[in-house]
Amino acid sequence: MHHFKQGRMRHSRHLGGRPVALPNSRSLPSYDAEDLRPDRIYNSLASSISDGTSPKLTVQDNHKPVFTNCSRYTPVVLEEQPVGTEVLQVHAIDNDPFESGGNITYSFVSAQGERLKFGINPRNGLITTKHIFDRDEPSREKVVYVTVRASDNGRPQLDDVCTIKVTIQDTNDNSPVFDKVVFRGYVWKNYLESVPQDLIPGREVMRISATDIDDGHNGVVVYGLEPKAFEDKDYFKIDHNTGVITLNQTIDKEPSYKFRMRATAMDKGDEPNEVSIDLEIIVVESHKKAPTFTNVPYGPIFLKENHSDFSTPIVTLDAESNINEYPELIFELVTGRTEQTNKLNTFILETEAQKAHIKLGRRLDYESINDYTLTIRVQNKYSLAAEEVIRIKIEDVNDNIPAFTEVISGSVFEHEPAGTPVMQVRAFDADGTSANNQVKYQLGDHENLFEIDSITGNITTKVEFDREKTDFYNVKVIAFDNSPSALLTNGKPNQGQQTFKIDIADKNDNPPRFTSKNYIAEAIPEDSNVNSVVTEVKANDNDTASIVMYSIIDGNTYDAFAIEKGTGKIRVNKPLDYENTTSYILTVRAFDGLFEDTAKVDIRIENVNDNRPVFLEYEKNVTIKEETLVDGCIANLQAYDPDIQDRKAPQRIVYFVVKEDQQKLLTINNEGCLSLIKPLDRDPPGYPIWQVLISAKDEDGGQTSQGESTEVVITLIDINDNAPYLNMDQPVVWNENAEPGTITALIARDNDSEENGPPFYFSLEGASEDIRNKFLISEAANGTNFFSSRVRFDREETKYYLIPITIKDSGHPPMTGTSTLTLVIGDENDNQMKSGSSSVFVYNYKGEAPDTDIGRVYVEDADDWDLPDKTFVWSGRGKHPNFNLDPNTGTITMLAGTPNGTYYLEFQVTEDSSYFHTHSVNAFVNVTVKEIPEIAVDRSGSIRLSGITEEEFVAPVGGISKKDILRNKLASILNVSRDNVDVFTVLHSPHHPLPPSPYFHSPSDPPILLDIRFSAHGSPYYQPEKINSMASNNLAELEKVLGVEIQMVSIDECIVEKASCEASCVNVLSKSSKPWVVYTNLTSFVGVRAIVDPKCTCLPSQPEVICLNGGTPVGLGCECPEGFEGPFCESLDVGFTGDGWALYPTLEACADSHLSLELSTLQDSGLVFYVGPISATGAATSLGVKDFMSLELFDGYPRVLMDYGSGTVKVEQKQIKLADGKPHRIDILWSNMSIELKVDSCQMSSCLSLTTPHGPNEFLNVNGPLQVGGVTFDIVTLGKTLGWNYLPGVSKRSYSGCVRNLTMNGRVYDLGFPSLSKNAIPGCSRGIAKAVSFGINSNFLVAILVCIAILLILVLAVVVNRKKRDDLLKDTDDIRETIINYEDEGGGEGDMTGYDLNVLRLPNQGLNGLMNGKRVPLGADDDDYDDDDDPRKESRPLGRAPEEVPDICGFLVDKKAAVDKDPETNPFDDVRHYAYEGDGNSTGSLSSLASGTDEGDLNFDYLSSFGPRFRKLADMYGEHSSDEEEDQYNQMGSESWC
Fold this sequence. Notes:
With 1538 residues, the protein is mainly β.
């Protein structure tokens, strides 16, 4: 301790006695910490500051920070303190001004990756803990060294370091631990010893020992002992310091008696910790003696920590068993629970007869454990034992080399006097005692330049340095301890060394110099953004440590500019204005803290157009007559441009009317003359006062022009140009049978001013004689006009009157107008009802209709407002379980779950009236319920009618309704049975509201639009493209039979651009199980509520994965049958032979669209696809929608025609020719800005085919089907009718070749299964199989075909011959696929062979290969219909798909006719079922379908769940089509069933 005090004294002496360089040659005395604060140093040093704009400091040196009390820092931290505990606040001083070198920040010096246990506040130097310290084992964190660095903000940055020893002080946080305790079976076993019955009092019985790993008094243990039972009291006592238990009185207990005691161990901390343990001492017979130690060393044994003899015993103990006949002993070195009690087996025990040798078991370390307590136990045969405690103390040796802290550099200014402090180095010796760990220092080199304090490690200069000669030195420092090394044999102390870099820092002794004395910044726009850079000035300073700071000291008018202090960049500080200041001359200053330089900066402002025009005074209020075209100017305006200083110069002002709706009425020229184009109207929709906004723009209205607006208020003088009109609530109700009298007062309005308005004069002069005979108008004394009746009315004769009222105003000249007054004759119950019957037809969507009001009970009654006088009850069979009746209204409610069928309901209606006696009649309602599947709605066609209501469409006229007419006509057009056509939706779309009045429609009212949806099926339901296209081709005929205008086929809410969405738009069919009801008297129609809703997106979201063509969903994709390669099992290709076409779903109206496909062809010309209108009527006429797109080959090159409805544009590509038989990719991209055509992804400029759309329209809106390979109509004639600029299909209207991978916005088309087609072949290999592609001569090809035909005839003959032979083998099973022969039991006839299915084994004539799975072109054998453009000719399937359904009806009829003509078959006297086997079925027998079964057993709906191979059987024998779950595009074609 004395040595440490001496060191601190020397350190203080060195700091106080050595001169420290300060400005003005002042030496640094021994400052108090408060006196050395940076702000006080700065104040004392800033002795000369001028009052001008350029303050100068006399300080010219950058001083390093200095820790003033480093050696006095002796912080102590209690262990186990929380993170954030304050340790110490260090402090360093720097003699420089605060802003230029005197601002000190603090940090730790640490090795890379070192985890710091302390944190330091960089501003105030407060050190806190970042780690919870533990002084005790196993951590043993007793001392921690930290090195703090103080860094200033000077140039260069200078540092000082201070290494601090932090002592971790012990707290009493550990309790004593008993050594001889074993944990067995989850119970701490206690001490167990034996005592002879005749043991002499005062003799040792046993020992207990406990260890406390705390330090000092916290680790000193004292012991206590007390009996657990009263009878055991006073027998034993314990030495409180050693834990030795001795016998206190003679034992008077019998052998085997157990004394039960409790021993305690408690430390001597301020708040002591105590533990206890149970002891058991067993009394044994007197002759049983405990062993004794005979040779035990006295006092502790001392070992050097470098003791390394592991073989020689450290100590040997002798013992006797005290049993002559059993001298054997068992020695044990008791393992304690701490390292001090040999927990780690630092010492081991070896025995030899009655001797025990203690040897070293592992190396010692004084710095870890310096004191061991070993307990040696000896036991004889009777388990009697004795213990002895050995103390071993470890002595420190000099086995640690001093190690330096992580400080490797220092610095000192050049030209500083000798003795200037440079840095302090610190090294520490880890030895545990001061005899070995005192470190001293010496230099290893450069002793002539530097010297080091051997005690403190402070390095100071011995000479004055010049940085220009040498700017740094590497100085080696040697640290050595104070005793001979235990690691070396030369008798010298341990020493360590490290090289430190000492930099010679530069001083500020050179002034800065600008690179130019005059800077010029020209053409700075006056509208430059604030903070934008104008120019940059630069000053150089030869001093590396000097920081040059820039400032503007003169010429900165209005603070228009600012300069970056560190870079010299001059920026705009405030908005510039050329009109105020055109140039600036700034004086800029460069200052390095001592010296300065100045320069001039000439900034010239450029005028820009940043001022809006200014209007001169003018007459804003103008008065003119309405409806009068005034000649010349109605107002004169004049404006000038403030940016043009010469007002006489041309101002280049242009004027225009702002409001678009006013631009058609008024105009203003560049002279400011405002004039009329058309007369203005004062009356609605005009205004008495018009505000006309006029805008003036300078620079002739160019892109950089500025604008200003003003107004001209035009007041219109009224002229009597509007006739008055009725302005009253309508209709007016007047009850029948009422006596003649006043009906209502007439109220009129005139849009003219009051001078040309009332009073009004009303008359019936324009009415018919019948009206004048029944009504009159009279004027009261107060001028009110009343409308009255002359006669009594009968509603049954006329329900309402539309009465023209003539009205004249009081203007000059007067105006006369006619308004219609709607008078409804109110009903009185003055007619007795009669029995009546009505019908209700219900389409139950998926059988899920909830409770639904389907109509009212109908009785024949001339009155129609008498419902409150009627009551309704069930009659006949009483209440029906599927229907409810409202007795007050007669409303019939169909209950949920009502099955298909026809229901005959009977009711009794009772009527009571003041005109007649109460009476009752019968009423009958026939309800037909038909469930319609979801697939029928999904695949439905649609039309939109104009000018007809729901009731008019449903109500029968002459026994038939328009709904029935439409159904019959569709059946005829589609060539299907009427029963296979369903018209299931009749409603007014909510997107198109009805006119306000049901009695009278004004020309301004919107048209009545009625949406109709229908479906048709053979076996599967037809695709909507087929239904809609065939309806479009017969549009004129449909309109004729219906007597109604058809606005569009295929209802499309996106067809009119921007009517529903501003950009992308897609139609979504919204279906509801809640029906839509149309009521009429005799009939009610309950249909499906299916509405087309517009969604403002490109493609509708798919809620689930739908796999086509028999595919199976797997995750987000599909597992597809062979041959179906699309992502959802689409068939990706289709071929054409030059005379065909195929229909697919239309394209969505997307803002940005991308269509791609692959072509392979040898044909130079042909129409590849077309989408757009297919008729000049419909939407093309009623809505003016003429949008279309087509792709065709023209001379071998692709050409796209596109029309957004406002003009056709053409895009061609002439770089790559496609007619080479190779596959070529076509990409078409279109948006509101461009239309682009790409071929084979060619990126060359010559491949670029790009144009812009024509006209104002922005999107392609089509609702016709996508027609691939050709079209179903005369496209050239249609194009001429619709006025297209370019006509598609002029060269050739059909395409020959392959189309593959047709994709629209990521959606892949199922090309192999079109909705309708003609001469289209799935599979590209067949689609382009031409002889030229193989290099075969055409004559040779004909010869090959003839040979094939002959071969087929021979095969056919063999098959027929075999068939006839098979007919004779009645007992032989027919193994043709899955059909076998079977006999019909119980027939009782002799001609049973007539039912043998062998008769069906005839050649497949006329079936186009459908039965044998071949793919053939559609229509190849159709000789009954020759019109190539009629889709009805090609209504059969394109090819065989796994789920295809062939024409079973035609097949069976043909077979039946052939069998009837066969002379070898017997005549039949009844009809039997013929079964057609499914192609490729794996089942073995159809015997379950034997005709002997009862009809009620033939319920084979389950067949629809067996997959596509059983679809034919499911359609033949099941109640519902198996195709209900097919996807929208999953249908090649369709066939009719019988």
